[in-house]
């Protein structure tokens, strides 16, 4: 067992310089044992093996207000790269659908939920994920974030508390997002996607 874990770590390290930024992220999640809650495993069947490549230069050309354009602008503004996955990691992707999908959609959630990339924004996304009951490990992460984030960014304490509540409320009322094929709806207006998924109260 220990030898297998060492091999996993060595494989992850070998992908740190991969041109696909999602490679290391999914391998790290796999090593740490990130797993979906048993209650939601069946809800992920729609995205098993589904990880189309995301091209920001293409999405930025979409009409203003479109889902793809808003996502691309968010990524470029924050100097982020899509977490694309290399084909040779298909076995890891199939084995751990939750890790794959959460890695790929994390920044998409920021756009859909209207949370920025600050500590307050990150805790909002995490609070949403916990409310949707994605993984037990995220509940632990949220408890730690509640303690640590106000210390790391005391000036954001009010926003952190506000986003905790907002994320939880959105997660409780929204459709199950992790199994949704967002990548097939880039050209649609963002507000239509939000409305369809039960996020219509969010203002752009």
Quick gist of this model?
With 204 residues, this protein is mostly helical. It has helices at 2-14, 22-31, 56-59, 67-77, 90-95, 97-113, 119-131, 136-152, 157-173, 190-196.
Percent of residues in helices: 55-70%
Structural class per helix/strand content? mainly alpha
Supply Rg.
17 Å
Shape: globular
Would you list the SSEs in sequence order as H and E?
HHHHHHHHHH
List low-confidence stretches: 5-16
Q: Number of helical segments? A: 10
The domain count comes to: 1
Distance from first to last alpha carbon? 49 Å
Beta-strand portion reads under 5%
Q: How can the largest sheet be summarized?
A: none
Round the mean pLDDT to the nearest integer and report it.
Answer: 83
Report the count of strand segments: 0
Strand-helix topology:
Elements: H1 2-14, H2 22-31, H3 56-59, H4 67-77, H5 90-95, H6 97-113, H7 119-131, H8 136-152, H9 157-173, H10 190-196
Describe this structure in words.
The chain has helices at 2-14, 22-31, 56-59, 67-77, 90-95, 97-113, 119-131, 136-152, 157-173, 190-196. The protein is mainly α. The protein has one domain (35-85, 97-196). Helix 1 (2-14) packs antiparallel against helix 2. The longest helix is centred in the middle third of the chain and has 17 residues, at 97-113. The N and C termini lie far apart (49 Å). This is Ubiquinone biosynthesis protein. It comes from Mastigocoleus testarum BC008. Pfam families: Coq4.
């Amino acid at each position: 067992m220990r030898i297998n874990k060492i091999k996993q770590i060595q494989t992850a390290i070998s992908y740190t310089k991969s041109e696909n930024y999602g490679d290391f992220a999914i391998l790290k999640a796999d090593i740490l044992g990130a797993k979906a809650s048993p209650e939601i495993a069946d809800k992920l069947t729609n995205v098993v093996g589904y990880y189309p490549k995301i091209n920001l230069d293409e999405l930025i050309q979409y009409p203003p207000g479109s889902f793809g354009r808003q996502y691309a602008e968010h990524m470029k503004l924050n100097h982020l790269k899509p977490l694309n996955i290399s084909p040779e990691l298909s076995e890891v992707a199939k084995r751990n659908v939750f890790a794959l999908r959460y890695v790929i959609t994390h920044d998409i959630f920021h756009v859909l939920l209207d949370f920025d990339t600050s500590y307050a924004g990150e805790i909002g996304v995490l609070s949403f994920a916990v409310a949707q009951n994605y993984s037990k490990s995220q509940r632990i992460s949220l408890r730690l974030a509640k303690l640590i984030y106000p210390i790391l960014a005391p000036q954001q304490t009010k926003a952190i508390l506000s986003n905790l509540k907002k994320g939880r409320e959105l997660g409780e009322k929204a459709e199950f997002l992790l199994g949704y094929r967002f990548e097939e709806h880039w050209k649609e207006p963002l507000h239509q996607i939000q409305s369809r998924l039960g996020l219509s109260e969010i203002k752009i």
